[in-house]
Design brief:
The chain has helices at residues 2-14, 27-40, 59-71, 76-79, 81-102, 104-116, 118-123, 129-150, 153-170, 175-186, 194-216, 232-235, 239-255, 260-263, 274-290, 305-318, 322-344, 350-369, 374-402, 405-414, 429-432, 445-453; strands spanning 47-48, 51-54, 227-228, 420-424, 438-442, 460-463, 475-483, 486-493. By secondary structure, it is of the alpha/beta class. A five-stranded mixed sheet has the order 5-4-6-8-7. Strands 1-2-3 form a three-stranded mixed sheet.
């Protein structure tokens, strides 16, 4: 009951305004891949503008295509529905476990707390692989916990099957998940029975091997020109990578604010509950496993933020500090509502003003309710806190030049008369699709240069890299295209 309530209120809070923000990041890239899979009737070999993309297994694209088909469109709102369902499932999972271990209030505070975390409000329903993967990963780790807690092999098998689905979603990114499960088990009394470990690990191994083996059975021409996962795990280290590595644990704490803070209370104190220890150890194990990678982003942490939130709530409940903590959130909401007015006054519309007023009222109610019903105090914050992003932040973001239309119009001008377009390192169909050009995508500029030197011609080339040493014989630059803080180069053929 607690899990269903959390999921329902989460959907109610996040569904309004789900399409308010236009495509961001690689959302439209993922949606186009799913659409091409449907058009070709082939999910085994995902493609982008016809080029095989083998960087991620196809399970997410299959799920996304299914939801888009049911929704009847490919708009940002429709594309984010799958992530919304995944977010609701994630919140429900930690609420269910929290309720079983700490009571209904603990479960509700955990579920609502995750829905109110900073990273969740901003990125929790983006049309990306990560929210979907996070739901699978969180469910797998919590099933593994149940297996250890109850000594039930059935739960271990459930964890393994969920881990296999995670592997079919994000490939080798499942290895930190395995490390998380091992670290969580290591801090508990006793050790998992061999049969439980086998029941959990065998399906994961099968999930990891299934897609690569299926691809190896295909004829070579079907994979011609395929873009593979980059080798930057070991080879792309730089000074920037070192800085990102040093900041990675800090990014984890910030992304899960404010509930990450109580999770850090008395880490070494005796008497931490078993579930609490398991969660913290699992998060640490996953982060340590990700540290060797030269490429990092906050989204890699998404599967472990809910665990950190649940650990934080367990700490608050143990120290009888939940009410004080929630009262502090109510006071913070009042401060944010007041501080936002002068910052966004030029872009604030009536709906945004209503959201700020609602946030202030919810903050006051939260402060008053926290002493007796902190779980419902957080529930009151859900809608205005999410609305603060979609109805207040997004208009200001767009007014600061983040809309795609000016870039599309500029590209249209620079490609006047063109019918074919080569795109290099720009995974943004929102920029190129409106032109309705015959488009070919290249990840490595050397591949395009080789084809140009061999005689292939395009009416225009859009280059999304800063390294200007990659010139293309017979083409010259006709202009720069400002887009998302970068300047893309547009090339046209030299005149005969």
């Amino acid at each position: 009951m607690v899990a269903l309530l959390v999921a329902a209120l989460g959907v109610a809070a996040y569904l309004p305004g789900i399409g308010r923000q236009e495509w961001v990041g690689t959302e439209d890239f993922r949606v186009r891949i799913a659409a091409e899979c449907v058009e070709r009737g082939d999910f085994l070999v995902p493609t982008f503008y016809g080029r095989p993309i083998l960087t991620k297994p196809p399970l997410y694209y299959l799920a996304l295509a299914t939801v888009l088909d049911l929704a009847g469109g490919r708009s940002p709102a429709e594309a984010r529905l799958l992530s919304l369902l995944a977010l609701a499932a994630t919140a429900a999972a930690i609420a269910w476990v929290g309720a079983r271990r700490g009571g209904p209030r603990c479960g509700m505070v955990a579920g609502f707390g995750y829905l109110l975390a900073l990273n969740t409000i901003k990125n929790g329903v983006n049309a990306e692989i990560d929210p979907f993967y996070a739901a699978l990963a969180v469910a797998a780790l919590l099933a593994w916990w149940r297996s250890l807690d109850l000594d039930r092999t059935g739960w271990a098998l459930a964890a393994g099957l969920l881990g296999a689905a995670a592997a079919l979603t994000k490939g080798l990114a499942v290895l930190p998940l395995v490390a998380a499960g091992a670290a969580g088990a290591a801090v508990l009394p006793g050790r998992p029975r061999p049969r439980a470990a086998i029941a959990a690990l065998l399906p994961v191994a099968a999930g990891l091997l299934a897609w690569p083996l299926a691809l190896r059975a295909l004829p070579a021409e079907r994979l011609a020109g395929a873009i593979q996962e980059s080798e930057g795990f070991f080879s792309a280290w730089s000074g920037e990578s070192v800085i990102e590595t040093l900041l990675f644990p800090f990014a984890l704490v910030v992304a899960a604010l404010p509930f990450s803070l109580p999770a850090l209370l008395r880490l070494r104190a005796a008497g931490r509950p078993a579930l609490d220890r398991f969660l913290v150890a699992a998060v640490v194990g996953a982060v340590v496993a990700m540290l060797p990678s030269a490429t990092k982003a906050t989204r890699y942490l998404l599967p472990y933020l809910p665990l950190l939130v649940l650990a934080g709530v367990l700490r608050l409940e143990r120290f009888a500090a939940t009410s004080r903590f929630v009262a502090g959130l109510g006071a913070a909401a009042l401060v944010v509502a007041a501080a936002a007015v002068p910052v966004v006054r030029t872009t604030l519309d009536p709906v945004g003003a209503l959201v700020l007023a609602g946030l202030a009222l919810a903050g006051l109610a939260c402060w008053r309710l926290a002493a007796r019903r902190p779980e419902w105090a957080l529930a009151f914050l859900l809608v205005p806190a999410r609305g603060l992003f979609t109805q207040v932040y997004v208009p200001a973001w767009e007014a600061a030049g983040q809309r795609v239309e000016p870039a599309v119009e500029r590209l249209r001008q620079l490609t006047t008369g063109a019918r074919t377009l080569a795109v290099v390192r720009t995974e943004s169909p929102r920029l190129t699709d409106p032109l309705a050009l015959d488009t070919r995508f290249y990840w490595d500029p050397k591949d395009l240069r080789d084809e140009v030197e061999a005689g292939r011609r395009f009416d225009a080339i859009l280059v999304g890299i800063k390294r200007e040493e990659f010139e293309f014989p017979g083409y010259h630059e006709v202009g720069l295209l400002p887009f998302e803080g970068k300047h893309l180069r547009v090339l046209r053929p030299d005149r005969p």
